[in-house]
Amino acid sequence: MKPREELWKYWQNPLVENQPIAYAYGQRQHQRSKYLVELCERIKIKSEHRILEVGCNVGRNLSFLWEAGYKNLTGIEINKNALAMIPYAFPNLKAELLCGKIEDVLPDLGQNYHLVFSMAVLVHIHPDSEAIFGDMVNATRKWLITIEDEQTNKGDRHIARNYKDIFGGLGMELIFEKQVVPGLSKAYRARVFSK
Asked: What is the pLDDT of residue 16?
């Protein structure tokens, strides 16, 4: 894997296939976000609960949550261009948006969220930054959702991990998992954890 600093630079200004606009639209992308809303409904997240997305990109997941009635939303994103696109891509979304590296922003947020989640983001976390897994646990009062590729190691920016082992080892209880996630390859697994 490339050095952590190179990964940060890449995600601050990614190549064409990872540009923010690629994450905003499309049937597959929308299937993923609809499934996230279904998971929130399954675990009975309330409209007033505070929700944090780790790696929100252009805000598609947050927008789907907003439209489903969840109004206390926060997103962390390293790419300022992605955040700048949100008002154009999803003009109805009202969320607190924090620009910076997850490693810098997350530890300072405290245990202020009922739910912390990630979708196709943790797979890009450098091994030197794995402390953020503990920071995610510290930031949530109750639930944590991961929708991540747990099977594919490829290239310089993609590390498969077993999040059941990682978050279980950090004191979270796995309460639900699904191998096939709509809109994603079979390598992705959805996991819901509870404190």
From this structure: 66
